[in-house]
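Re: that chain you flagged

S.,

Sorry for the slow reply, it's been a week of failed gels. I finally had a moment to sit down with the sequence you sent. For the record, here it is as I used it:
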Amino acid sequence: MSEPEFLHELDVEVEADLELQAAGMPPQGEALVLDPYEAEAEAADLRSLHGAIEALEAAPYPRVDD
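Prediction finished late last night. Pasting the structure tokens below so you have them in one place:
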């Protein structure tokens, strides 16, 4: 799998987790968080990861000629 494909798949998973978190449901594979501060911290982490993925996707990739 190439790096752009990996980043795209990761971005799809992070966006899905953000949508679940916004709906008040835990991200995939995680328990429901009852502490609102912890839930907000997790949401901030997901938003930060999403932003980092978008920045990497926007960066030019070096072209490798075979």
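What I noticed first: The two ends are 17 Å apart (CA to CA).

Talk soon,
D.
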